[in-house]
Amino acid sequence: MKKRGVRSKTDTRARHRAVAKSSLFPPAVEVDRAVAVAVRAAVLKHKRLGQAIVGLRDGRVVEIPASKIRVPRAR
To answer: Considering the domain boundaries, does residue 48 fall inside one?
Structure first.
């Protein structure tokens, strides 16, 4: 017989899983939007400072000079 107010390990694990799925992580759309805003800010900063950035083009690492940097539009 369980004591009143005491949860079993199974009950506790199920509650933790439910909380982890629902409230700890924002929806993927919000995460994608936040990453896009951060990338745009970083690229814009490099362009304004005249610094090159490094990226991938056709699977190769390339350095993009500040004069060739295109800043993505804000959405």
So the answer is: yes
